[in-house]
Amino acid sequence: MMSALKVQSVVVLIVMTIISQLLHRYGIPHERGFHCKDETITKPYHPIIIPMYYLLSIAAAVPSLAVVVTEYFHGSGRRAVSAKLKQFYFGLVLSFILVLLCKTYFGRLRPNSIDGICNARHYCADDPTRYVDQFVCDNGIPKLVREARMSFYSGHSSVAMYSAFYVILYLIYRFKYNT
């Protein structure tokens, strides 16, 4: 039978995962304008090379494997492994939620927003130095239009860095203090 603490940990993780999915699917990003001369948002559109589900799989599997193998060779029991994995997954989901909150709140335009996705160059035809405070994205693909406004900060780099730092700090702590 599962203890109350284990049930609580699982429930918290599930709730956090649901929150991240709701933010990802239904969060409405802040709508900001753009400067016509801003070359950082006029790149051509390129599809994502590494899908987020693939990155999340790798970012979860590598640290999990590192924890399991390290704890096995240190002779730790299941509780130690379970505790370390709970810490890791809690932090990973929390990091992902923070990324989604920031992306939604800031509404930073992606590098391919103006030319690659929104086709909004016509707003700059009269005055190439103007600031366009409101514009309509003429793409027709709602997912791309929504994603065009969610650049800052990178979800891919955040997930990868969290996983890498967790493994590094875990291994340093484990080998330095518990050898």
Describe this structure in words.
By secondary structure, the protein is an all-alpha fold. The protein has a domain at 4-50 and 87-162. The chain has helices at residues 4-26, 52-73, 78-106, 113-118, 142-148, 155-177; strands spanning 34-35, 131-132. It has a two-stranded antiparallel ribbon. The protein is elongated, with a radius of gyration of 21 Å. It starts with a helix and ends with a helix. Residues 88-177 form the Phosphatidic acid phosphatase type 2/haloperoxidase domain. One of its GO terms (molecular function) is phosphatidate phosphatase activity. Keywords: Membrane, Transmembrane, Transmembrane helix.
Structure in a nutshell:
The chain is mainly α and 179 residues long. The protein has helices spanning 4-26, 52-73, 78-106, 113-118, 142-148, 155-177; strands at 34-35, 131-132. It is elongated.
Runs with pLDDT <50, length 5+?
Answer: none
Shape: elongated
Radius of gyration: 21 Å
What level of helicity do the residues show? 55-70%
* Ends distance: 32 Å
Strand order across the largest sheet:
1-2
Quick one: how many beta strands?
2
Give the averaged pLDDT, no decimals.
Answer: 84
The run of helices and strands is: HEHHHEHH
Number of helices: 6
Helix-strand makeup class: mainly alpha
Beta fraction of the residues?
under 5%
Largest sheet: 2 strands, antiparallel
Topology:
Blueprint: H1 4-26, E1 34-35, H2 52-73, H3 78-106, H4 113-118, E2 131-132, H5 142-148, H6 155-177
Antiparallel strand pairs: 1-2
Helix pairs in contact: 1-3, 2-3, 2-6, 3-6
